[in-house]
């Protein structure tokens, strides 16, 4: 047993008072979950604490909260782990707050209908059957069904929505959960409207190109759905396979990044805008929209020059890296682009039929240390050594 | 005052399937649930769903396995209906979008499951319930114009007219605390089981027997209540489920001596004998000192190729890692039998009709009875979908011939009065959580895998004392917005009613059949006990009755695996 302090953000809409923090002491084993601690307090001390919960085992998706500022499931976060990353130096205080980006109803309960479910509805979340519907099942490759299982594994807890930085800036952004849901249908060979779905999400100014690759959703997701990866896959299928060039310039902007890194090895900021509008053509620089946006970003450019983040020479010529390094970068491009099919990461496909023990021993050794200590919660940032994320062959247009 | 042709209480698989079927039949439909539909406990169903869909399989074989699994207490007419309709239901789900596992040729693939003579379990990794539940919910979103969803509404009581017809319910909007009367020409209970009356249990916190108790309180008989399934593989500490799919994929069970003890108890089917048999075997090993010191058995999933485990059993990889600190792909995980499912429920026919006109029940809340003394793994999803659909269709047909009922306003006052009484309880009594814990631990101690007269008498005594104590358990939350405290008080009352029915029925059945094993009556006794036991509310307590078991073509035989 160990003692922990739960610092809960309380809010009761009926009192007319502002939210406040209240601390409770709990005595539980370190490997017990934050949810168990909250339920103990609720049962023994204060039954008015509001939290949605049901399965206790990270399956139902009810208990999404922010623990020490990061979204996750309360049932899926060990006390010990939470206390270590806690806000107080005492190593035993755990801050629990409602999820972000959604209005709070009471205490830890947020209004998911107002945000999350609206966005799910937005992506037409049902199969539009390819015709004719067969008398028996659709015959589709095994790999495709395994592939979409990663997005089927989403439990709609809202953790990714809570911590999405793009949504903070643009509340209309379709967001990580709904995008993952969209991939679930785009990746389903039984669906008749792959192109229409992609076109819709690419042309929407709050669609798939609104994501800024911050990785927050991947970190927040307790089920390994990796929403951002699904957004990137939607973009690749939209751009590479369906050649959808959207009116928001999302596709060209992304292509500009790719071509600039290939050309320079590093980003050439001054070239980014012109290429985003005009493509790789030299004349692209004179695209009227590029000019306008360049004009709009002048204050930032000036600030950058004044603070020494940018020099006129750098702005004109771009960064240079040693020739050998550039060749190496370009070698990566050649290798990736030289494959006959795209390789995509998928949690459910380990990629090895008979895994050589030796090759895997690193992960095996890393694991007991983490798991034995009651750790190993996926809220820890960075790649999880336990997750087999080898290349799958699931993706082929 | 909302009024609909068909009102469905509960939005798990049975409720959602009923809603879609009723809407398809042209009815105006409301579906009401105390949690958001995707939080329903169907989401936790892992392993799969049974159907004789392969050309070399037959529904008769599936039906026989089910009858045998039920220890001949299942009603064979209902089992025939379920097994005959199963293949079309799988195809319906497949066309609706469920991402069922495909085999190498791209066709639907199966896995083996307990008590089945063929591999006939269709699945999505080990998230089958979730995959189906989410697809059905998305279909409800698609049909939002025909199906009104009342999400996070808590039903407090069922309503009847003077003739005894069920005409809807009173429910509390959890977000505002407002009470509302829902009138309907037909009402379908689909609010799941009562696992929270046991501690530990694999069941979610929401499984508090609401529907069973609500129907019982207005006079509907319950049936097979003594039949409580203990799942063979649950985590010792918290009762979490390790799917039977693990054994279906090839995992073995070992005792502390390293013996694969199922060779002794079920030489043919081994780990894939039916659940009551495997749970009893484990409990015997533990009781006779061959378990591990923490009272467990080892489940060895390393027998399954690692790639296969990562692809098809990912959820239990996570559960092992996060909740037991074990990498199941590399070492055995310690498990024991744990309360999982209640075969009994509100007695219905195979159209879902209870004995109260206008009231239907489907899924775990109901007892058709297709599971009899013991449910086969992967038959519960099938039960929810087949009888959910049939109830929905039948209720819609009933609605066509009935005028829209209207409840008097006074029912709202009565319901409000009951809520107010909870708010006004003086402090000083026991806490709700304390009573609930005592109930759960009592049931798990005395009404588990092995039972006897003495233990059951003790259990009944405790349950009845808790029933006395519960009405004086005060609540802390006096607000109206998301007041979970007051709901907890009502749920406790539901659980106590259900527990009392369970114990009473277990006392009555003085034989051993299916999940009920009486150490004082260790044999099955077809001469005296080949019938269902029913429990009805009489005044303040349960009264017992019997109902015949329907036998169509499979006469009872000795049951071995």
Q: Could you name the ranges of chain A where pLDDT drops below 50 across 5 or more consecutive residues?
A: 354-397
Which segments of chain B are poorly predicted (pLDDT under 50) over 5 or more consecutive residues? none
**Helix-strand pattern of chain A:** EEHEEHEEEHHHHHHHHHHHHHHEHE
The CATH topology of the largest domain in chain A is given as Fumarate Reductase Iron-sulfur Protein, Chain B, domain 2
| Secondary-structure arrangement, i.e. CATH architecture of the largest domain in chain A | Orthogonal Bundle
Report the radius of gyration of chain B as a whole number of Å.
Answer: 22 Å
Shape of chain B: globular
CATH class of the largest domain in chain A: Mainly Alpha
DSSP summary: helix tally of chain A: 17
CATH topology of the domain at 228-339 in chain B: Flavocytochrome C3, Chain A, domain 1
- Give the tally of β-strands of chain B: 21
What kind of oligomer do you see? heterodimer
- SS class of chain B: alpha/beta
Alpha-carbon Rg of chain A, integer: 24 Å
Count of β-strands of chain A = 9
Identify the overall geometry of chain A: globular
Structural class of chain A: alpha+beta
CATH superfamily of the domain at 228-339 in chain B: Succinate dehydrogenase/fumarate reductase flavoprotein, catalytic domain
> What would CATH call the architecture of the domain at 228-339 in chain B?
Alpha-Beta Complex
Spell out the CATH superfamily of the largest domain in chain A. Alpha-helical ferredoxin
What do you see in this structure?
The complex is a heterodimer of chains A (397) and B (561). Chain A has three domains: 2-110, Ubiquitin-like (UB roll); 113-247 and 342-392, Alpha-helical ferredoxin (Fumarate Reductase Iron-sulfur Protein, Chain B, domain 2, Orthogonal Bundle), CATH 1.10.1060; 250-337, no CATH class. A five-stranded mixed beta sheet of chain A has the order 2-1-5-3-4. Chain A has a two-stranded antiparallel sheet with strand order 6-7. Chain A contains 17 helices and nine strands. Chain A is of the alpha+beta class and 397 residues long. With 561 residues, chain B is an alpha/beta fold. Chain B has a domain at 228-339: Succinate dehydrogenase/fumarate reductase flavoprotein, catalytic domain (Flavocytochrome C3, Chain A, domain 1), CATH 3.90.700. In chain B, the strands form five sheets. In chain B, strands 1, 2, 6, 7, 8, 9 and 16 form a seven-stranded mixed beta sheet that branches. In chain B, strand 7 (153-160) and strand 8 (166-173) form a beta hairpin. In chain B, helix 1 runs parallel beside helix 4 (128-142). The longest helix of chain B is centred in the last third of the chain and has 25 residues, at 484-508. The radius of gyration of chain B is 22 Å and the shape is globular. The chains are: A alpha+beta (397), B alpha/beta (561). The interface between A and B is large, with 74 and 75 residues.
